[in-house]
Specification:
With about 475 residues, this protein is of the alpha/beta class. The protein has two domains: about 5-245, 3-Layer(aba) Sandwich (Rossmann fold); about 260-470, 3-Layer(aba) Sandwich (Rossmann fold), CATH 3.40.50.880. The chain is built from 13 helices and 25 strands. The radius of gyration is 23 Å and the shape is globular.
Length: about 475
C-alpha cells in the first residue's frame, strides 16, 4: 500500500514526522524505501541517512507522470515498507501548461481545469492520485483546538479522488489540548494515527537554502535516536504498519548495465552534494564507473578519469577551504582546459568561476575556468524552468527543450556572450533570461538542475564526449 505524508501547509512538520517514522522502522530492523515529492535534495539526504537507502525524487515536472509511476514501482518493491514525503501543502502545485483552460468554480471556491478538477499539477495530491496512495495529513496544532476539525474536514472533502487515511497531530501542548483536539475530530470519524507533543530537544538547524545537510551535523545520530524513541510511542502502529506495507506488484525491469569503460569523477563532500540518485544510476547503467572525491579534502583530482561532474551544494559556505586547496583548483582548471568534459550545476558552476564573493563580501579564488564571479545575495531565485538550448553543447543539441529547477542566492557578475539556454517559467511564458556557460565547449555549467530520468540522451551524450576525450 504505502502512504504519503502530507501537510496542510509548509512548516507543519512533515519532515520531522517522516524521519520519526523512518527512524522507528529502522530501529525495528524493517527495510523501508523512502521517496520525496518535488525537486528537493536536502530532505532526501536525511531519509538516506536513516534508511541506508537512496531516497528517490518523484517529480512529474522534471520527469513525467509515467516516470513517477515507474520509479515508485521499481524501488518500492525492493523493501517491505515504503513511504513518500510530500511537498508544501497537500494541494500546492503549479498551474502546468498541460492543465490549462482554468476556471473558478464558485460552488467549491477552487481553481479548476475544464474538467472541474483541482489544478494542482506536481503537488503531493497529484502524486497521491498517480500512485493511488492514501494520505496521512500532518496538522500543526500549536495554535488550534476546535478549529482542527474544519481543517481536517476541508482536506478530507475537497477532492474525492484523495483518500485521507488519518491525521497526525503535531506540536500538541498538553493532555487538555489533546482532549480538545480529539473531541473536535470525533464527528469526522477520521483516525488519529499519531500525536507528537511539542519537542524542545528535537530541532534540525537550517540556513539560507533550507536544512543544513547531514554531512555537517555531527550530532545527527543522536537526533535520530531521539526521533526513534519518539516514534516508538507516538504512532498508532497497529493501523500504520498495514498502510506502509509495499504492494506485491511486479516492478518494471531495471535497464541493463553496460560494461564500465569510462571513469567519471563525481565531487561529493560537504560543499557539493546535490545529486539526484537516478542521474548517478543512469551513468552507471550506461557504462560509467563513478569515482567519488572531495574538492575540499583531496590532494589532487582523481587519476585516470575521463569526465567530471560537479553537483550543487554550498561552496559559498566552504569557500575559504576550497580556495586554499590550490592544487585541486589548478588541477580542475588544467583538466578542463585540456578538453576533459565537465558538468557543473549551480554550486558546481560557482566553483568553476574566478571567485566566490560570500555573504560578508569576502572574495575567495575558485578554479577560474569561467571568466565571471559568483556573488552571494539576499535575493532567492527559485522555480521550475523550461530551458531551450541556444546552441549545440556538451549535453543537448540546439533547439532542445529541457525542464529543470533553479534554487540559489547567488548571481554572476558577467553573463556569457553565447549562453546555453533561453529560460522561462514552467507554468507560464514569462521569460527568465538567458543563462549557462558552454565555453570551453567541453563544459556545461548552468544554474538549472536537471533530472535525467526521462532524458536518457543527456547522460548518453555526456559519456560519448568522455569516450572521445579518452
Amino acid at each position: 500500500m504505502s502512504i504519503i505524508i502530507a501537510g496542510e501547509r509548509s512548516g507543519v512538520g512533515k519532515t520531522t514526522v517522516t524521519l520519526t517514522l523512518l527512524a522507528s522502522l529502522r530501529r525495528r530492523d524493517r527495510l523501508v524505501q523512502s521517496f520525496k515529492v518535488g525537486p528537493d535534495y536536502i530532505d532526501p539526504m536525511f531519509h538516506q541517512h536513516v534508511t541506508g537507502r537512496p531516497c528517490r525524487n518523484l517529480d512529474p515536472v522534471l520527469t513525467s507522470e509515467t516516470y513517477v509511476q515507474q520509479c515508485f514501482a521499481r524501488h518500492s518493491q525492493l523493501t517491505e515498507y515504503a513511504l513518500v514525503e510530500g511537498v508544501m501543502g497537500l494541494f500546492d502545485g503549479i498551474s502546468s501548461l498541460v492543465n490549462s483552460h482554468l476556471s473558478f468554480a464558485e460552488d467549491k471556491g477552487l481553481m479548476t481545469n475544464d474538467k472541474g478538477q483541482i489544478n494542482d499539477f506536481a503537488s503531493t495530491a497529484h502524486i497521491a492520485r498517480l500512485l493511488d496512495l492514501p494520505v496521512v495529513l500532518v496538522i500543526d496544532c500549536s495554535r488550534l483546538s476546535g478549529s482542527v476539525a474544519a481543517i481536517a474536514h476541508g482536506y478530507q472533502s475537497i477532492d474525492p479522488r484523495i483518500k485521507i487515511a488519518g491525521v497526525v497531530l503535531n506540536r500538541v501542548g498538553s493532555d487538555r489540548h489533546l482532549s480538545l483536539l480529539k473531541d473536535a475530530l470525533k464527528p469526522l470519524e477520521l483516525p488519529i494515527l499519531g500525536v507528537l507533543r511539542r519537542q524542545d530537544n528535537i530541532t534540525i538547524p537550517d540556513r539560507h537554502l533550507g536544512l543544513v545537510p547531514t554531512a555537517e551535523l555531527p550530532e545527527l545520530n543522536a537526533l535520530i535516536d531521539r526521533l526513534a524513541d519518539l516514534g516508538d510511542t507516538c504512532f498508532d502502529w497497529q493501523n500504520l504498519l498495514p498502510l506502509l506495507k509495499s504492494q506485491p506488484l511486479p516492478p518494471p525491469p531495471n535497464p541493463p548495465h553496460s560494461p564500465s569503460s569510462i571513469r567519471i569523477a563525481v565531487a561529493r563532500d560537504r560543499a557539493f552534494n546535490f545529486y539526484y540518485q537516478d542521474n548517478l544510476d543512469l551513468l552507471q547503467q550506461l557504462g560509467a564507473e563513478l569515482v567519488f572525491w572531495s574538492p575540499l579534502e583531496a590532494a589532487a583530482i582523481p587519476k585516470d578519469v575521463q569526465g567530471m561532474y560537479f553537483g550543487g551544494g554550498f561552496p559559498e559556505v566552504f569557500a575559504q577551504k576550497l580556495a586554499e586547496n590550490t592544487s585541486v583548483r589548478d588541477g580542475v582548471k588544467t583538466a578542463i582546459l585540456e578538453g576533459m568534459p565537465a558538468i557543473a550545476e549551480c554550486g558546481g558552476l560557482m566553483y568553476l568561476c574566478e571567485q566566490i564573493i560570500d555573504f560578508e563580501g569576502k572574495s575567495w579564488a575558485m578554479t577560474g575556468v569561467l571568466p565571471t564571479s559568483a556573488v552571494m545575495g539576499a535575493r532567492l531565485t527559485l522555480g521550475y524552468r523550461r530551458a531551450v538550448a541556444l546552441q549545440d553543447n556538451l549535453l543537448v543539441k540546439a533547439g532542445t527543450t529541457v525542464h529543470g529547477h533553479e534554487f540559489h542566492r547567488s548571481h554572476l557578475t558577467l553573463t556569457p556572450t553565447k549562453p546555453l539556454f533561453e529560460t522561462s517559467r514552467y507554468d507560464c511564458d514569462e521569460n527568465m533570461g538567458c543563462e549557462g556557460w558552454g565555453f570551453p565547449a567541453n563544459v556545461h555549467a548552468s544554474y538549472v538542475h536537471l533530472h535525467w530520468g526521462e532524458s536518457r540522451e543527456i547522460p548518453e551524450q555526456f559519456l560519448k564526449e568522455c569516450r572521445i576525450y579518452k
